[in-house]
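hey so i finaly got around to running the thing on Myo-inositol 2-dehydrogenase / D-chiro-inositol 1-dehydrogenase from Rhodococcus koreensis. pasting the sequence first so u can double check i didnt mess up the copy paste, my clipboard has been acting weird all day
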Amino acid sequence: MTVRVGVIGVGVMGADHVRTLHAVVSGATVTVITDFDASRAATIAEEVGARTVATAAELIAAPDVDAVIIASHDSAHAEQVSLCLDHRKPVLCEKPLAPSVDECASLVTREEHLALANPLISVGFMRRFHAPYQELATAIRSGSVGTPLLIRASHRNVTAYPGGNSTDTVTNSAIHEIDITRWLLRSEIVEVSWHAPKSTSMDTSRRDPQILMLRTADDVLTVVDVFVNARYGYDVRCEVVGETGAVSLAPSHALTVDASLRSTATYPEDWRPLFADSYRRQLQAWVDALTEGTRSPLASARDGLRAIEVAEALIVSMNNVGAVTPVKNS
Ligand code: ISE
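ok and heres what it spat out for the 3d tokens, dont ask me to read them lol
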């Protein structure tokens, strides 16, 4: 069986998913594409031999679409995922599942009411498929650094995507750090606080950088700096400090040039080169589960809800001069 996939939104990430599905993933074919920019949709559709439709609703209802990928603007996710539930179509929604707790909670409730053996919603927290994060998790579980006490993480982009604000930094970028912290530690984040030094002059629309403190139920503290206009390169760091040692991700730079008495590291411009293999493995795992009729091994709708609950607590802290804020579970 070949899974016929419809892709909603072919900006940076959606286009990447289309190409990965088309060229690298086995067992799937992209049949239908839609985007608010019709010519962008037409160009990539032609590249992979798909057809285009005008709206997300049309795509989700299409008879030649078995499963849907949502890579549209974050604000459109809830409505589009909801339509997938109406049509009982499996959906891989890019993170965040939706930018508010209310929207995510309502999707979780609706999906749970369907009581399906294989839930329909998967969320694109692709770092769970990144081999270095998986090795980090294995190192923690094997006890090689003792009981984890502290995580120090960084999330740095070259430039922020246009039109966002301080809140979007949390719901769109820092959401990865939130998910990976609970995934690495297997413990829920129960309390947070938000802080910021003076902002970069490069972006007047948001506080940037931001420092986030995430405390898990087992009392491990994660400290993350998220700097979405860091300019120098795309850089993700993570060090887990335990009672007897520390374990870190290897540096994000792919290339080091040694010449003229210098060693120069070259960073990627965005996340795609660093996480290309994670996206591929995530898509393949999703398609395989659909083909085999098994449960999706990707992050679930409830994982999406948990992450946005933490994000909302961070936003409360942001609006209350960094007050320590409990995370409410709905
Ligand atoms: C983007 O959507 C991602 O998923 C990237 O991993 C992240 O670094 C970036 O900040 C987001 O906008």
